[in-house]
Write a structure and sequence with these properties.
Helix content is about 50%, strand content about 10%. By secondary structure, the protein is an alpha+beta fold. A hairpin with a 7-residue loop joins strand 8 and strand 9.
Length: about 525
């Protein structure tokens, strides 16, 4: 039988044994008693046409029209490709993207590695055109194939990308060394015609030598710089790490005019070219520097090449343990060897170690070597060397003048530190007073303690200019004089105080009171 929920009118099929019982609606959760009122009466079903009712006659009838129906014939284009009318297929899109990406990648490769210093520098110009032409062909084919829905745009895109790609060998040609230098017929060597007496064999030897040393970078630089300012050092029997150390040594020794560029030999990692530009020193002077680490085999002023064979006997050999062990008997000797190293990093590491070591042996030798390094170092390195000299130098050893000149140079760069001034005070450099006063004028708070440490010297430094100081410097000077000046300074301070007022007068009076209290 069927029952109906009195709350939500939902109907349910149930068994007759629920009649008279309380049930819960599964739709709205309402509780109700199953009585005859909730029973749904079954009605007889009728289908259309089975029963005729007289009351239906009042409704009209729709009589179909007998008029003929005409249809317009649709016109379709028989030659339309349905593949062109819909959205592009995924494979077509991938084809366009891959084609463009392929050409872009080759362009990027040329931009990053196609120059004279790039990894593609040995690739001939013809081979560069072949690479770009093949890439343009493949990339354009993929782009045109993938742009079937809009062939015109695909062709334009392919042409633009191909044009950019084919311009790369023109913008980044191969190094024309073989054409300009190594061509045996009608040879021109670095702008000078070869003498007619030069034989083909001699030219072949020269050609092989230029190829051996990798002369292309030198030739390229000579086209842009003054010939006398270019020097190439071809180093033999040296590891890449040692060649970098040699390059740094020559850079320091030549006054740091231009940073070196190192070219490794791909066929032999024990040889390489070190190139310098904008040099002021002559090629002979640089060749003399090379004797520190090797034997100069050849100096070619025409080619601007120094050919050097590195001799390990001329390079300092350091014991990696002894050089760090300050208790070792060979500690000083090993660090002196390090100071003579061609590697700037090894030198400065030794300077820092010596600055924190107690002098025991080789004191004069180490002091003289530190003085030599002082003139060829930058400001930061000079400050490290001065700190080491403060430990190792003795009064009267001749360090005062070179150190003071170095400190003046450092001061012009605004990099003077406490160690530098302490050295000048320790070695009683007379000119140090003016420098210290200048530093104090710029930073009264930062340099006050240094002037206090001068003791009686502080009044010699400050009293002459006390009257013309501003309020901030008078306050600082009063504090310094109160802690370090002698009793003899009081009359001068009192005289200055008469012309002052306010905070300046109070500070000067406080200085006088402090001096009197100390004495």
């Amino acid at each position: 039988m069927k029952i109906q929920c009195p709350e939500c009118s939902q109907r349910f099929d149930v068994t007759e044994d629920l009649l008279g019982k309380t049930v819960e609606c599964g739709s709205c959760d309402a509780r109700f008693d199953v009585t005859t009122d909730e029973l749904v009466a079954e009605k007889k079903k009728f289908y259309p046409g089975e029963k005729r009712g007289s009351h239906l006659d009042r409704f009209g009838r729709n009589t179909p029209s007998s008029a003929a129906v005409s249809f317009q014939e649709a016109q379709y284009l028989n030659d339309v490709d349905p593949m062109l009318m819909g959205p592009p297929l995924p494979r077509k899109t991938v084809s366009v993207v891959f084609g463009v990406l392929l050409m872009v990648v080759i362009v990027v490769v040329f931009l990053l590695a196609g120059g004279r210093e790039g990894t593609m520098r040995d690739m001939e110009t013809l081979n560069r055109f072949i690479l770009c032409g093949f890439t343009s062909l493949v990339g354009s084919t993929l782009v045109i194939y993938g742009s079937a829905n809009n062939r015109v745009k695909g062709v334009i895109l392919a042409l633009v990308c191909s044009s950019i790609l084919m311009s790369m060998p023109i913008l980044f040609p191969a190094n024309p060394t073989k054409a300009s230098i190594l061509d045996i017929q009608d040879v021109t060597i670095i702008g000078k015609k070869a003498a007619k007496s030069d034989t083909e064999k001699a030219l072949k030897v020269r050609q092989d030598y230029l190829l051996e040393i990798g002369y292309e970078p030198v030739d390229s630089v000579l086209r842009k710089h003054r010939k006398e300012s270019v020097v190439g050092i071809f180093v033999r029997d040296a590891s890449p790490q040692l060649r970098r150390a040699i390059g740094a040594y020559i850079y320091d020794a030549t006054g740091k005019k231009s940073r070196e560029t190192t070219y490794d030999n791909v066929d032999n990692d024990m040889t390489g070219l070190i190139l310098f530009t904008d040099q002021v020193m002559s090629i002979d002077e640089i060749a003399a520097l090379c004797t520190k680490f090797g034997r100069v085999e050849k100096i070619s002023k025409d080619l601007r090449i120094i050919d050097v064979i590195v001799e390990n006997s001329r390079i300092a050999k350091l014991d990696q343990y002894t050089v760090l062990d300050s208790d070792s008997i060979d500690y000083e000797a090993q660090n002196l060897e390090a100071l003579n190293s061609i590697d700037p990093k090894v030198k400065m590491d030794a300077v820092r170690r010596l600055a924190s070591s107690e002098p025991r042996a080789r004191r004069d030798d180490i002091t003289q070597k530190l003085i030599q390094l002082l003139s060829s170092s930058n400001a930061e390195q000079q400050l490290e060397i001065i700190r080491a000299l403060k430990t190792w130098a003795l009064p009267g050893s001749g360090v005062e003048k070179p150190v003071f000149e170095a400190v003046k140079s450092i001061h012009k760069q605004g990099k003077v530190n406490q160690d530098a001034i302490d050295f000048l005070i320790k070695f009683e450099v007379v000119e140090a007073g003016d420098l210290l006063l200048e530093l104090w004028n710029g930073d009264p708070v930062g340099w006050s303690q240094t002037i206090i440490n001068l003791g009686e010297g502080s009044q010699v430094l400050l009293l002459p200019g006390l009257e013309n100081m501003d309020i901030a410097h008078i306050v600082s000077a009063s504090e310094i004089l109160g802690k370090s000046a002698e009793k003899s300074a009081i009359p001068h301070i009192e005289e200055v105080m008469r012309g002052k007022s306010g905070q300046a007068k109070k500070s000067l009076q406080a200085a006088i009171d402090e001096i009197k209290r100390r004495f």
